[in-house]
Structures are given as structure tokens and as C-alpha cells.
């Protein structure tokens, strides 16, 4: 995978529960994604912007700025970063608010790993494949 492709496959995880954040990062790493973890929306906003993030896994209920507020701030700034919302709260109004803010998926904790991986793959597009030598058939 090229360095540019690596950067496209970076997933930012914004989750204030450190054990949940670590679990999400390990899961994503095990499926071939690079991750950057952030404990708050504010930490994400103050990140080193030289790294290119391909998508954002974003908890809705964070200390300080909420995930929906962060998504709206990014959207207002012109960001087209795909977002996957995660939450432990089952609230239809909140889910509607999340959908209105724009997201690839809205997942309720605990969610099956396959749902998150599928959502991240949809957000990032297909993984680049290594170039294969041409095969000659005679």
C-alpha cells in the first residue's frame, strides 16, 4: 500500500471512554485500517492536520462539545469527511438529529464489529490492491 493510500485509510476515533476508544482502534487496526484516537471533540479539532483522515468514528455523547456539534462545525467549515456516529443512548429524536447532521451510519453500542467495518469500508471506498505481475497464458 502506498503512503497516499495509507493516509486515505486512516480512521479517526473520537470517544471519551478510553477503553471503548482502545477497543475500537484495535478492531479497526485488525481489519487493516490505521487509526488515530481522540478523547474529545476539542482534541480532534486541535489535532495535527498534516495527517490525512479518511473517515471519522464519532461518539455522540462526549464531554464538552457533542459529536453532533463537532459534525456540524466540520460541515460548516466545508469538510466532507464521512462520519459514523456511535452512541449508547437509544433515542429516536437523537438518531434523527444525527441523520440530519449527515452520517454514513448510526450505530448503537454495543454493535457487531461487522457493522462498523462495513460502515468504514463504505466511507473509505474499496481498499487499494497491491499490483500483481501480469500472467502469460499460452
From TrEMBL:
Residue span(s) of domain Response regulatory: 10-124
Keywords on record: Phosphoprotein
Gene3D superfamilies, per database record: 3.40.50.2300
One matching Pfam family: Response_reg
Sequence positions bearing 4-aspartylphosphate: 59
Leader sequence segment: none
Protein name (database record): Response regulator
InterPro entries: Bact_response_regulator, CheY-like_superfamily, Sig_transdc_resp-reg_receiver
Amino acid at each position: 500500500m502506498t503512503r497516499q493510500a495509507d493516509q486515505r485509510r486512516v480512521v479517526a476515533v473520537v470517544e471519551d471512554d478510553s477503553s471503548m476508544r482502545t477497543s475500537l482502534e484495535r478492531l479497526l487496526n485488525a481489519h487493516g485500517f490505521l487509526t488515530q484516537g481522540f478523547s474529545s471533540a476539542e482534541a480532534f479539532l486541535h489535532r495535527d492536520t498534516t495527517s490525512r483522515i479518511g473517515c471519522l468514528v464519532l461518539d455522540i455523547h462526549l464531554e464538552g462539545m457533542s459529536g453532533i456539534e463537532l459534525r456540524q462545525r466540520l460541515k460548516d467549515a466545508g469538510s466532507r469527511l464521512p462520519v459514523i456516529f456511535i452512541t449508547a443512548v437509544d433515542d429516536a429524536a437523537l438518531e434523527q438529529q444525527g441523520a440530519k447532521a449527515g452520517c454514513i451510519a448510526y450505530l448503537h453500542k454495543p454493535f457487531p464489529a461487522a457493522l462498523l467495518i462495513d460502515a468504514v469500508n463504505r466511507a473509505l471506498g474499496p481498499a487499494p490492491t497491491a499490483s500483481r505481475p501480469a500472467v502469460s497464458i499460452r
